[in-house]
Write the structure tokens for this entry.
Amino acid sequence: MADDHYAVRRGVRNLLETRPNLCVVAESPTGRAALEDARAVKPDIAIVDFSIPELNGLDLTVALKRELPRIEIMVYTMHDREDLALDALRAGARGYVLKSDTEKHLLAAVDALSVRRPYFSDVVSETLLERFLKSSPATQATLTHREREVVQLIAEGKINKEIGFILDISVKTVETHRASAMQKLKLRTTAELVRFAVRNDIIQA
């Protein structure tokens, strides 16, 4: 479970562990920590918040599916925008539940994912699913996974040296990804990059 709010993690854990067949094997306050925990414990299901530090829920989903192809991922979020739900589907999530939904939706989603069935909140309408099935890769964001990681860390106030350490890449590589992202997005300043990250829910305002 990846969420930067302790109260949310505790509430979800308490709810899930009312079921004898469910056990929360790891809780992580950041996306980066969640990826490390998943590598260590290899969970069957990941419950991921969309807006979490260091590695947002969308990029965490991509990384989890790349490293653990059989993992089922549910995005558990306050965001009810259809475009974000569509992005989550493209990234590999098979569940999307709003934090404003009742507890039965969260449990129903986990039950569905445990038998490899998808479960989506009402925000994901039939129309949205049709859009997803018909969409091509060209409709996805122009930034690469690594560029999005760098953009998020810059927007969170990290300097190039810190980003290089977190991502285990050189400062020069960080600068290359930063320049590429800003060119693609037609941005000129760090402030514009931060505004882009906030508007697109890469970070929270």
Summary: Residues 6-137 form a domain with the Rossmann fold fold (CATH 3.40.50.2300). Confidence is low (pLDDT under 50) at residues 136-140. The first strand starts at residue 45 and ends at 48.
